[in-house]
Design goal:
Blueprint (H helix, E strand, L loop, with lengths): L10 H7 L15 E9 L4 E3 L7 E3 L9 H14 L3 E4 L29 H4 L7 H12 L3 E6 L28 H19 L1 H4 L3 E4 L13 H19 L4 E7 L5 H10 L6 E7 L4 H4 L8 H17 L8 E7 L6 H4 L4 H12 L5 E4 L23 E2 L3 E2 L1 H9 L5 E3 L6 E5 L5 E7 L20 E9 L6 E7 L6 H7 L8 H10 L6 E4 L4 E6 L3 E7 L6
Parallel strand pairs: 1-16, 3-4, 3-10, 4-5, 5-6, 6-7, 7-8, 8-9, 9-10
Antiparallel strand pairs: 2-13, 11-12, 13-14, 14-15, 15-20, 16-19, 17-18, 17-20
Length: 542
């Protein structure tokens, strides 16, 4: 990840609003409101809508996956999203212990001549113990590794002092000898195939390095030296088994994709997928090379569309695109990643990116995370869906709500609604009221009452029974928002155990509300930064 670097309603509308379901409390409701009518033909043709936004999640570096709280958070997010794989940095870092050329061979004093030689029982310079614990732990929870091949073992580094600014000071230099790197990659991949079987490991993705276009790569010049690293790595992996999937360039700010694919084609280098990253607060100058002022809720998919078009025009027009990091912010902004803002931001990002990418990996699923050091307070703008001490954030509730969306999309003419149908005929409609973050980024700022207008949706479900039962999920300042309780506590830096229990309870998603349509429609008000999910059972559309 790249941290450094309205109009008033008419009298008639006012009467209507007084009967709307779930109007926000008067203390929070601004005086103005917008009204939008959404018509959904429940029998309309659909397009495929795979849940590309929840297939993979990022997380802190590899060794953290051995912690109990990491695995508890993993299980929580798995239950909410049924995600398939997790990506993290640093599987080759010294704290995992894979590579040590000075490691002494194990001597077996009781070994007889009839038994195997010691060398046959000893991995020598490679130690897979923690790697096995890491990957076994993921697989035991129904999650596969998305294998980021990084960083450089210090005893293999061309510059042992090329340490990144992150708290754990990973080495970012190229290897001092590519034969050492090739041998390690081969041994690593072969061990995985031997332990888990090729049918399993062939379903993993192997991504070469992390963000080599910025300060995570010390090669100079950056692009050609990274291409050299990629070439060696891809060939070593394919040497173990051609079914193993390898890709890159894993760049920040959606960079290098066209050049990378041209390089692979011209030099006959294996490549199975493209991966790159983008964040909502990346600048247009850095991502698109323009002077536009692109809003946070548009930047990610502008970048995704750019890369999608670059791939279409490349020698590999059908190659999968994996956005292996995305989020609304690459910085620690509590009013963004800790807040209800993430509900409408996520919904609008999903709506825009549909059809442009095979997978997007949200950075990250948990605040078990140490890039800036040991976590010092639960809500500091961390990237995770859960704060420290397994406390759910609004972002987790947003993912859980949007998981209810079906796998076929119904076309709508709206930038604030998304309608889907499932195989059982059920209809799910997401509605949201996007409003920009309220604070400055330095600390969470509760939304002022007049920050943005509420929005009323008149949702018409054509083809549904006139009074069909529905379920309604909400995420807003008063639903699924742990920060409301944390603020009431006075925002303690180190909550007591009793406070942690209360925060965990407050962070849970609000239970769905049972309701019904009236003449085939629903009128519902959504406050600023609110997200609603409406679900209609399949039998109600028969």
């Amino acid at each position: 990840m790249n941290l450094f670097s309205r109009h008033l309603p008419s009298v008639g509308s006012a009467v209507l609003l007084s009967f709307c379901m779930g109007l926000q409390s008067p203390a929070q409701a601004p005086s103005a409101s917008k009204i939008e009518t959404i018509s959904v033909n429940t029998k309309a043709p659909t397009t495929p809508f795979p849940h590309f936004w929840e297939q993979t999640f990022g997380s802190g570096r590899a060794i953290l996956s051995l912690r109990q709280d990491y695995r508890e958070d993993l299980r929580t997010v798995k239950q909410a999203t049924d995600f398939k794989s997790v990506r993290f940095h640093g599987i080759f870092m010294d704290d995992v212990g894979l590579y040590d050329p000075d490691r002494k061979p194990i001597k077996f004093a009781q070994m007889t001549n009839a038994e195997a030689a010691p060398e046959a029982s000893d991995a020598g310079i490679y130690n897979f113990s923690y790697i096995d614990h890491i990957y076994d732990g993921l697989l035991a929870n129904g999650v596969r590794p998305f294998v980021e091949l990084s960083f450089m073992p210090k005893k293999m580094a061309s510059d042992p002092n090329a340490l990144h600014a992150f708290w754990y000071k990973q080495n970012v230099s190229p290897p001092k000898d590519y034969k050492l790197w090739d041998d390690m990659i081969t041994a690593f991949a072969q061990h995985l195939v031997d332990r888990y079987g090729i049918d399993e490991v062939a379903q993993w993705d192997f991504e070469v390095w992390n963000e080599p276009n910025i300060d995570f790569w010390g090669g100079n010049p950056k692009q050609p030296t990274y291409f050299e690293l990629y070439d060696h790595t891809a060939r070593a992996i394919k040497k173990v088994n051609s079914r193993l999937r390898v890709g890159g360039p894993s760049t920040a700010q959606a960079a290098w994709v066209a050049a990378f694919l041209d390089h692979c084609k011209q030099n006959n280098i294996p490549v199975d997928f493209v991966s790159t990253h983008v964040y909502g607060n990346d600048t247009a100058k850095n991502v698109l090379g323009t002077d536009e002022n692109i809003p946070r809720d548009r930047m990610v998919c502008r970048a995704v569309k750019m890369v999608h078009n670059e791939i279409t025009a490349s020698p590999y027009p059908k190659i999968p695109l994996i956005m292996s990091e995305y989020n609304a912010s690459y910085a620690n902004e509590p009013d963004v990643t800790d807040s209800i803002y993430m509900g409408p931001w996520l919904a609008t990002t999903i709506s825009q990116c549909d059809g442009l990418t095979q997978s997007m990996s949200y950075w990250s699923f948990s605040d078990v995370f140490e890039e800036q050091g040991v976590v010092r307070t639960p809500f500091y703008g961390g990237f995770g869906l859960l704060a420290e001490d397994d406390i759910p954030k609004p972002a987790l509730n947003a993912f859980a709500m949007l998981h209810h969306l079906g796998d076929r999309r119904i076309k709508l003419d709206s930038d604030s609604a998304l309608a889907t149908r499932s195989a059982d005929g059920s209809i799910a409609v997401a509605l949201w009221n996007y409003a920009a973050p309220y604070g400055t980024g330095a600390a969470y700022t509760p939304p002022p009452a007049t920050a943005a207008p509420s929005k009323t949706f008149i949702l018409k479900l054509e083809g549904a029974a006139s009074t069909a039962p529905i379920e309604i999920w909400r995420l807003d300042a008063d639903h699924g928002n742990v920060l409301k309780t944390y603020d009431a506590m006075g925002r303690p830096a180190f909550p007591s155990r009793d406070q942690i229990a209360k925060l965990r309870e407050a962070g849970k998603p609000s239970p769905p509300e049972a309701s019904s349509l009236k003449n085939g429609s629903l009128t519902i008000a959504i406050p600023p930064q609110g997200l609603v999910l409406v679900k209609l059972g399949g039998k109600a559309t028969d």
